[in-house]
Structures
1.
Amino acid sequence: MTVTGKREGWLSFQELYTAAEDKHTCVRTKSTDPMTIYFTSGTTGSPKMTEHSHCSYGLGLTMNGSYRFKSLRQCSSGGEPFNPQVMEQWKVKTGLDIYEGYGQTETVLVCGTFKGMEIKPGSMGKASPSYDVQIVDADGNTLLPNQEGDIGIRIAPQRPFYLFTQYTGDPEKTASSQRGDFYLTGDRATRDEDGYFWFVGRSDDVISSSGYRIGPFEIESALLEHPAVVESAVVSSPDPIRGEVVKAFVVLSPTYTGHDQEALTKELQEHVKKVTAPYKYPRKIEFVEELPKTVSGKIRRNELRNKEWGKA
């Protein structure tokens, strides 16, 4: 359905609104009946239609109203993990902390840094009381602290009512999102001894190079610590020896655009080695004017990865 304009094969909200009757007859519904269909942001491909029930939708309602920046008392973030540097700069400018959280169109809030909790910059916080969140392996077994795995929400013996019901019109995708007793979010993370979750990357985004698994977020965060880098996106790139290597697409600060790119590439590579680990540095760096993003501002890493692997 289009809100403005027209598109072949789509319904027009304005035409339906104009043709609607003045009186509306309410229909009795159950909490499990479909209520609304959200679209995912499309960071991994085409947006998926995600169905939520009346119960789930009602619990996720938010109030829309006016706002005044100077009256701001608390800040929260979601959608993409913040780099610690951004959180530090925000704290300096506003005097306020940012409470990070993690969720999806399918799940609403999965975990977060709730009021009264210690803030660990870069962490997604702890599991929401609504969910039993675990880090699981390929067989659906729960992993120990600090072991990397898939983020799983327990759906057995009872499916949480916050969770979406299905991907509309795509039963195969719905089935593939489940492993044993868990719904898999498609993201990988670790959980520390205190119960805080740490984002590694989308399952498709994690790079396997010479047997090492490398999350793009850590490399992007390291690059952003360098004054030359305004934005970065890290993806896998084919390599005949290592299978895959880390490649970084970098948007430079205006003060660095005239620098020698070969020398700057080596400087950034050495910087990442020092901040993370020698095997994680980007063996390839491409300087670009901008990064491809979704309408909601998320980096489309799949587009960059497909370009590298000849799928664009």
Note: The helical segments are 13-19, 54-59, 84-94, 171-176, 216-224, 261-275, 301-308.
2.
Amino acid sequence: MSLISRISNRRRPREHSRAGEAGFTLVEVLVVISIIGLIMGLVGPRVLNYLSDAKVKAARIQIESFSSALDLYYLDVGRYPSSTEGLNALMQRPSSAIAWNGPYLKGTSVPKDPWGAPYVYKSPGDRKPYEIVSYGPEGANGSKGAAGYIKNAE
């Protein structure tokens, strides 16, 4: 008998699989969960920080957009909207604004800040004709105080 025929006729041992032997051991699962937890612990805070920074930048860009629209309003009407008229004067003509040529913003209403709160408009502002403020993630009653506020540039 040739070597090839002996090898092919040789019985292969049966592979037995029991239900208890299939799958991963508890130690393997715990190691994988620990590695995933470690990665999330290192990467998670950075991702959240980037999201927070992005919201602050979005608020600053929106405030700059409001400032440009307010300057156009000023050129048409000759004054900035009063505090009572607010930023809504950029969307709907106030009764006192005869030469109003808006709307000065796109959309149907004044957008809210990235945290879902309305922007605060005050005219006259502190040492400037108007002030636009977002209270940031902490809101008006936030613990960060004025340092957490996002305002229009001076």
Note: The radius of gyration is 32 Å.
